[in-house]
Amino acid sequence: MITIPYLTALTTYFSYGLLFAFGQFRDFFRKIFDWWHASNLQGYAPICLGLEDFYIRRLYLRIQDCFGRPISSAPDAWFDVVERYSNDNNKTLKRTSKITSCLNLGSYNYLGFAAADEYCTPRVIDTLNRFSPSTSSTRVDGGTTTVHTELEECVANFVGKPAAIVFGMGYVTNSAILPVLVGKGGLIISDSLNHNSIVNGARGSGATIRVFQHNTPSHLEKVLREQIAEGQPRTHRPWKKIIVIVEGIYSMEGELCKLPEIVAICKKYKAYVYLDEAHSIGAVGKTGRGVCELLGVDPADVDIMMGTFTKSFGSCGGYIAASKEVIQYLKYTCPAHLYATSISPPAAQQIISSIAVILGEDGSSRGAQKLARIRENSNFFRSELQKMGFEVLGDHDSPVMPIMLYNPAKIPAFSRECLRQNVAVVTVAFPATPLLLARARICISASHTKEDLLKALERLEEAVGFDYFQISSENRGML
Amino acid sequence: MANLYVKAVPPADLNRNTEWFMYPGVWTTYILILFFSWLLVLSIFGCSPGMAWTFVNLAHFCITYHFFHWKKGTPFAEDQGIYNRLTWWEQIDNGQQLTRNRKFLTVVPVVLYLIASHTTDYQHPMLFFNTLAVIVLVVAKFPNMHKVRIFGINADK
């Protein structure tokens, strides 16, 4: 729940209304001008129907330079951003060969494995030389190497489940697994702020989908009771199975899931729990084992644990960890396992090595240091931002901290000013977030040193100036 | 000034085109826009207050009819066109009829009509146009008109 100052809500609606009105005016005149020039469709149907691309053409393209900035180095704490320019008011952007070195506050580089690492990189290069970059085959044909089996064991041990299966892409893990786990006649209850991959997978499964209010276990219970009582639509037969899907850390809010309550409710109503730990695995918990460790939930209580390797492990791909029977079943049925090329061996080795570092198996305490550092960094940065007057979301200990911007004009202003100060941030707006709640999302990494964070705070303050942002109610006394 | 804080619990409305209408502050913004556009019309044209209200009423009619009851679908492609046959009015509140938002939106044209006709002293021809506007808008918002296309106007091919 986010408290917005009333005046800000009004001005945000008004700004969006103005942008919408201008967009409509321009479309209207564009239609008149195009009337004069004959259309060159030659009988084919137009690609976009009517209004479908209105948002992209009239709102997104205006501030396109704030999104999709190309980088030309590894996404470490400092990285190189390529400069771009536009001759036609941001409709097309051209790259230059100039680069600026910026402080990286946007990459999901939670433990600092995204750049070269003294333990992981030599082993990855070794595997690259031994196995070559691609297996050129699916897992069932010829794509399962010793690295793959070692990886699956390693992941299963790390997460605390009997078995695991690994895929080459994180997004695909969700969208290809859900249709296999539940089909027509089943029920999926998903958190209202779940990631697009889960939404896609749920839609592709053919099961009935119901949404419960974000992170509200009481509403989940209400939805469960209602749905179990009603049964399937129209026939009212009992559901074949019920799966509740939640995420460990929600990437747009930075808050942790209320896992103990949700697991208790699911046990009571005999529903399965599917936990997507994309952002929390490796980043939270005393030994980095994710949200279960942090909140004291037994991994055996969560039926299916899913995660990705792109955030804390500096690699690519995703995994599913569950009981031996479920993983065996997935290996026979999941299309991402049967038909998609297996994960690249050097990428798999990166994961194995980074897990070894996290667990301290490489003989040093770097893993524990990284985990402690990311916790300290996140808490320090969050409290400093709040002291500066920003409204920061997210729970204590979470490395993701969105700063609320609200007004659509602040999104490009914040982004461009920060870039001018050599700080690279990621800004998110409608439709990825609700209309009123545009935000800039900051991801802290273990490779940020204290000096980096202090510099970031200094530059952020210079970029926005103190009066530019609404002061939250606690700091009102300072003005 | 902004001592008032409103809690914004994100509602579970999956349609991005209409979920923004469920947050607090929309009604006030709508009313303020109408009021300020009346002031704008008065300052630009220098006409009588009644004529300005008539102008605002008719402009409101054109704009809201076009965007609420004529344009169909959503301005983005991510929902894969599931709302392509529904106008915005039919999409809000997930298609439920007689919710608070719908009642509010039905009352606004009526109140505008009353103000416009009162301030023009019920003279013709303003009264005729105002009445036409309010009849069309209110009838379009009846629950019985949900998904109805009269004479196939604005129906899909």
From TrEMBL, chain A:
EC class: transferase
A Pfam family of this chain: Aminotran_1_2
GO biological process terms, semicolon-separated: ceramide biosynthetic process; sphingosine biosynthetic process
Molecular functions per Gene Ontology: pyridoxal phosphate binding; serine C-palmitoyltransferase activity
Keywords: Lipid metabolism, Membrane, Pyridoxal phosphate, Sphingolipid metabolism, Transferase, Transmembrane, Transmembrane helix
Gene3D superfamilies named among the record's database cross-references: Aspartate Aminotransferase, domain 1, Type I PLP-dependent aspartate aminotransferase-like (Major domain)
Keyword set includes Membrane: yes
Cellular-component GO terms for this entry: endoplasmic reticulum membrane; serine palmitoyltransferase complex
Protein name: serine C-palmitoyltransferase
Organism: Hevea brasiliensis
From TrEMBL, chain B:
Annotated keywords: Membrane, Transmembrane, Transmembrane helix
Record's subcellular location: Membrane
Protein's membrane topology: Multi-pass membrane protein
The keyword Transmembrane belongs to this UniProt entry's keyword annotation: yes
Keyword Membrane: yes
Chain ranges passing through the membrane: 21-45, 51-68, 126-143
PANTHER family listed in its UniProt record: ORMDL PROTEINS
Protein name: ORM1-like protein 3
Organism annotation: Hevea brasiliensis
